[in-house]
Design brief:
The protein has 317 residues and is mainly alpha-helical. The chain contains 17 helices and 2 strands. A two-stranded antiparallel sheet has the order 1-2.
Length: 317
């Protein structure tokens, strides 16, 4: 897998290289900052689930994976503008370093490159990626509908994270199956797995936003609450009732100052909200495992099965 990861890095940098050095620098900024490349890895592993002795990934799997990763990076460029974020992955955000206009246009450029790569893999992959970009927008809009609203319902949260996060993981896995020429049933099970993995990923990320340190996150802890985005641990804490929940509710509904932010984090950390959020994540782990049960039992499938458990272990001490 190490060699395939290197192929992904090289292909991503090649995909955003242009005749304009300035645009190339901006477009490659977060690529150069590094990352786990989970979406390309998902595509690569998915493409190998029918192979009992998997070798290197095909070029189509590499290209499909980086198309998904470029969509993800483009969305981060846009998110950082909306959130006025100053750091990402331990480096300055594009908007902080070059400005909002450059960040928006560079994000659009990454989405365009992703679409171009998807088109090279066929009309089905092109249509799938275009649909997924739409789902990302729908998920983000759903989140914005309830910004600074403590009464945000659970259905809204789940719908939002399925659109803005899980859909791209489902697409990454689906593309892997498509480019490998797998049968439709297997492709559908891969999609179900990727979507469930994405749900676990986002719930875990939202838990870590409360439980991890600034250094561990590479950004300020509790940032979601500051921005008025009330995620699952916060929602469960509010629903639990009692004095602490009442105190938290009184703080929310507006931007938090630093001292209030620290107190809000303390309340969520000390309550039942994190445990209940972990329980919800376990439900999606079970869905991912059910999808794996329906796949060929190969080393690649075993890797998929272990991936959701690894995610959950990062918040279960």
């Amino acid at each position: 897998m190490g060699a395939d990861r290197q192929r992904v890095e090289e292909a991503m940098l090649a995909a955003v290289r242009t005749s304009d050095d300035y645009l190339t620098e901006i477009a490659s900024h977060l690529i150069s900052a590094g990352g786990k490349r989970l979406r390309p890895v998902m595509t690569i592993v998915a493409s190998l689930v029918a192979d009992p002795t998997p070798g290197s990934a095909s070029n189509d799997a590499i290209q499909g994976g980086i198309a998904c990763e470029l969509v993800h990076l483009g969305s981060l460029y846009h998110d950082d503008v909306m959130d006025e974020s100053e750091t990402r992955r331990g480096v300055e955000t594009v908007n902080a370093k070059w400005g909002n206009l450059q960040a928006i246009l560079a994000g659009d450029f990454l989405l365009a490159r992703a679409s171009e790569i998807a088109a090279s893999l066929g009309t089905e992959v092109a249509g799938l990626l275009a649909h997924t970009i739409g789902q990302l927008c729908e998920g983000q809009i759903e989140e914005l509908r309830f910004t600074y609203k403590p009464e945000r319902p659970l259905d809204s949260y789940l719908s939002s994270i399925e659109g803005k996060t899980a859909s791209l993981y489902g697409t990454a896995a689906r593309i892997g199956g498509i480019v490998a020429g797998l049968d439709r049933t297997t492709v559908d099970h891969l999609t179900a797995y990727g979507t469930a993995y994405g749900m676990v990923f986002q719930i875990v990320d939202d838990i870590l936003d409360i439980t991890a340190t600034d250094a561990e996150l590479g950004k300020p802890a509790g940032h979601d609450m500051v921005e008025g985005v009330y995620t699952l641990p916060v929602m469960h804490t509010l629903a639990s009732g009692g004095a602490a929940a009442g105190e938290l509710r009184a703080m929310l509904g507006r931007p938090l100052r630093r001292r209030t932010q620290r107190r809000a984090i303390e309340i969520v950390r000390s309550g039942d909200g994190i445990r209940r959020a972990i329980s919800t994540a376990r439900e999606f782990v079970a869905r991912a495992e059910a999808a794996c049960d329906a796949l060929p039992q190969t080393p690649a499938t075993a890797a998929l099965r272990g991936a959701t458990d690894a995610l959950l272990s990062s918040v279960v001490r």
